[in-house]
Amino acid sequence: MGTGTAVEGTEVERDAMARALDLARRGPAHGPNPRVGCVLLAPAGTAAGELPGRVLGEGWHRGAGTPHAEVAALADARSRGLDVRGATAVVTLEPCDHTGRTGPCSAALLAAGVARVVVAVPDPNPAAVGGADRLRAAGVEVVVGVAEDASRALLGPWLLAVSRGRPHVTLKLATTLDGRVAAADGSSRWITSPEARAHAHALRAEVDALVVGTGTALADDPALTARDADGALAAHQPLRVVVGERDLPVGGRLSGPGGEVLRLRTRDPREALAALHERETRRVLVEGGPTLAAAFLRAGVVDQVHAYVAPVLLGAGRPAVADLGIGTIGDALRLRTREVRPLGPDVLVVADVEEEER
């Protein structure tokens, strides 16, 4: 729950919040900043016979270094020649109160003369929090909690990353029905279908970093790129991270086109995530083999699992996850299924690791 005076908002404001969420979805899923949308609504009496709630401006955050949603909405209103004094700003995340690459949104709203601010989710980022308090102190009415669940669903990985001080971690598995990621001879290309692989590449294009261990880097020589349906490099290429102490040969596919390559010479998942957090990495996709998967699970830092399961049986070969130290069924790591999606002949299971299981 937020810290505001109410959570309902008016019907017009709730509709505006739904629109703000649609705008927020236009922003990139990757990057250090959240996806935020803002709608500015006219107050009553701004023109003869005018009803409150006319949209004066709209905006969304387009990525790091660009204007935040509130500032973009103010600029949109001004480009239309509209006066925003006395307006209501409906925004999916509490306006920030810090100066980074851009100035504080709370100050921009105050300077524009906005009279009311309706917020979905309070900002958990300790570097940015305080916008609502600044606005209230200046006499602006602030309501927090309108459409909070929908906004939290959109902001999920970012909210977790800034509140816990580490990236949100998705563990990707691509297995046979009997849980194998490679045959007895080590071959693994391809267990899953083109449809499943295309989905996985789309996920790569949304995250900030791909993580593998040195074992996978040496055995598979992966490129760790995000590609579109035609095999071309996607517009966004995630950071390519190799965790482990062994050296990698020069001239492998990691030397080719793609995102920056980062070597983290550690076997400790928490240490690796701390280094990525320092780089403002918010979303990580772990694609390493059984050893790395087990290490992240045992460290309690996996938030979600994407399991691509193919209708294939091997009966032998490498398991998807190495030993977790679980000796009895009562201690099994049980996940909460969020989605089951057919992908060609395969199935994608998306499941969350519950807090008590960490």
Automatic annotation (TrEMBL):
The biological pathway it contributes to is: Cofactor biosynthesis; riboflavin biosynthesis; 5-amino-6-(D-ribitylamino)uracil from GTP: step 2/4; Cofactor biosynthesis; riboflavin biosynthesis; 5-amino-6-(D-ribitylamino)uracil from GTP: step 3/4
The alphabetized list of GO BP terms reads: riboflavin biosynthetic process
CMP/dCMP-type deaminase domain boundaries:
11-143
EC number(s) from the headed UniProt entry: 3.5.4.26, 1.1.1.193
Alphabetical list of Gene3D superfamilies matching this protein: Cytidine Deaminase, domain 2, Dihydrofolate Reductase, subunit A
Active site positions, chain numbering:
70
Q: Which residues bind NADP(+)?
A: 174, 190, 216, 220, 289-295
Q: How is the cofactor bound?
A: Binds 1 zinc ion.
> Any idea which positions bind substrate?
188, 204, 224, 227, 287
At the top level, the lineage of the source is Bacteria
The alphabetized UniProt keywords are: Hydrolase, Metal-binding, Multifunctional enzyme, NADP, Oxidoreductase, Riboflavin biosynthesis, Zinc
A Pfam family the protein falls into: RibD_C
Which residues take part in binding Zn(2+)? 68, 96, 105
**A GO molecular-function annotation:** diaminohydroxyphosphoribosylaminopyrimidine deaminase activity
- Is Metal-binding among this UniProt entry's keywords? yes
Q: Does the keyword Nucleus apply?
A: no
Q: Which reaction does it catalyse?
A: 2,5-diamino-6-hydroxy-4-(5-phosphoribosylamino)-pyrimidine + H2O + H(+) = 5-amino-6-(5-phospho-D-ribosylamino)uracil + NH4(+); 5-amino-6-(5-phospho-D-ribitylamino)uracil + NADP(+) = 5-amino-6-(5-phospho-D-ribosylamino)uracil + NADPH + H(+)
Cofactor(s) needed: Zn(2+)
User: What function does this protein fulfil?
Assistant: Converts 2,5-diamino-6-(ribosylamino)-4(3h)-pyrimidinone 5'-phosphate into 5-amino-6-(ribosylamino)-2,4(1h,3h)-pyrimidinedione 5'-phosphate.
Q: Which family does it belong to?
A: In the N-terminal section; belongs to the cytidine and deoxycytidylate deaminase family. In the C-terminal section; belongs to the HTP reductase family.
Write the protein's name: Riboflavin biosynthesis protein RibD
Organismal lineage = Bacteria, Bacillati, Actinomycetota, Actinomycetes, Micrococcales
